Amino acid sequence: MKAIQMSSFGGAEVLKYVDVEEPVPNENEVRVKLYYAGVNPAETYIRQGGYAFFEPELPYIPGFDGAGIVDAIGPGVTRLKPGDRVFVASTLARRKTGTYAEKVVCDVDAVYLLPESISFEQGAALGIPATAAYRALFHRARIKPGETVLIHGASGGVGLLAVQLAKYIGANVIGTAGTEEGIELVKQSGADIVLNHSVANYLDTLPSLTHFKGIDVILEMLANVNLEQDFTYLNKFGRIVVVGNRGSLDFNPRLTMAKEADILGMAVWNAPVHEYNESLVAIEAALKNGGLKPIVGKIIPLKEASRAHIEIIESKAKGKMVLEITKS
Ligand SMILES: NC(=O)c1ccc[n+]([C@@H]2O[C@H](COP(=O)([O-])OP(=O)(O)OC[C@H]3O[C@@H](n4cnc5c(N)ncnc54)[C@H](OP(=O)(O)O)[C@@H]3O)[C@@H](O)[C@H]2O)c1
């Protein structure tokens, strides 16, 4: 089968389009013929080597997320059968052969049914982004219906799904994006208010826009840039979840005292298995009953995965980036 494989750590050029043997499912594993795979910033960090959460053995086929059809099952699998439409979320799977490939094998626990109303490219947008959005909102911030959440960086893979999940449970949602196109997508996802984080002083209107009720929860996609300023708008006893961060900052810890606020780290890699599986059951249900409708942005052919790795870091987000593996 065709796959993207890397034989060394390094820049995007280490990703090669090659022929590899088809993986075979063992006990409690399934094989999925993939139509699309999700591209996540984490896969670029892993590609460079030294990523704190995951350092694969080489050669390595990247990718944790995808969607397609079950084409083989191993002994002991009863929940799924060949022909089922599914999405793959294999971040925490014991075995995961990589979704940047025509077929992937992973634990059955990493594979969930995709309703007919959700396309394969939308299914590939779930995995890491959906489990991260769920974990940040519910397992870390413990957000409640009626609270106000700022999704600081809402136009990308994690942000758009976080907006949808927060709206679904009855939160008031403010999102930010850096382009007009991104702003439209955040609105389409149901945000009550959308601000442009590329414009100077864009948060100045936040108090009046929230009728001076303030913000209870912030999901932060770029903490090194925004964390200190977030405290201006956070309510007493508020929670900030650090989802994304690309550097360090000069920060005054006194800010946390004044508001008895919590700064909570979040990494899907740390999720206890029961919480991770719980999030996937909730995601599967939200897809089925209309609570989640992933928005796909750029679709890039599998063989151009190296371009996808450059663009996911360098270009503005306009929905979730996916790799097209086979036309559905
Ligand atoms: N902790 C975890 O377990 C976990 C899981 C998944 C992702 N992440 C991290 O979370 C971040 C987002 O992931 P993703 O998959 O959504 O990536 P993505 O699809 O590339 O989206 C990046 C998001 O960050 C926004 N952004 C850019 N500048 C910003 C600023 N100054 N303030 C606030 N937001 C800003 C982008 O907005 P514009 O492009 O519209 O400007 C976009 O919404 C990445 O750093 C990723 O590594 C962490």
UniProtKB/TrEMBL annotation:
<protein>
    <submittedName>
        <fullName>NADPH:quinone reductase</fullName>
    </submittedName>
</protein>
<keyword id="KW-0694">RNA-binding</keyword>
<dbReference type="Pfam" id="PF00107">
    <property type="entry name" value="ADH_zinc_N"/>
</dbReference>
<dbReference type="InterPro" id="IPR013149">
    <property type="entry name" value="ADH-like_C"/>
</dbReference>
<keyword id="KW-0007">Acetylation</keyword>
<keyword id="KW-0521">NADP</keyword>
<feature type="domain" description="Enoyl reductase (ER)">
    <location>
        <begin position="10"/>
        <end position="323"/>
    </location>
</feature>
<comment type="subunit">
    <text>Homotetramer.</text>
</comment>
<dbReference type="InterPro" id="IPR020843">
    <property type="entry name" value="ER"/>
</dbReference>
<dbReference type="InterPro" id="IPR002364">
    <property type="entry name" value="Quin_OxRdtase/zeta-crystal_CS"/>
</dbReference>
<keyword id="KW-0963">Cytoplasm</keyword>
<dbReference type="InterPro" id="IPR011032">
    <property type="entry name" value="GroES-like_sf"/>
</dbReference>
<dbReference type="InterPro" id="IPR013154">
    <property type="entry name" value="ADH-like_N"/>
</dbReference>
<dbReference type="InterPro" id="IPR051603">
    <property type="entry name" value="Zinc-ADH_QOR/CCCR"/>
</dbReference>
<dbReference type="Pfam" id="PF08240">
    <property type="entry name" value="ADH_N"/>
</dbReference>
<dbReference type="InterPro" id="IPR036291">
    <property type="entry name" value="NAD(P)-bd_dom_sf"/>
</dbReference>
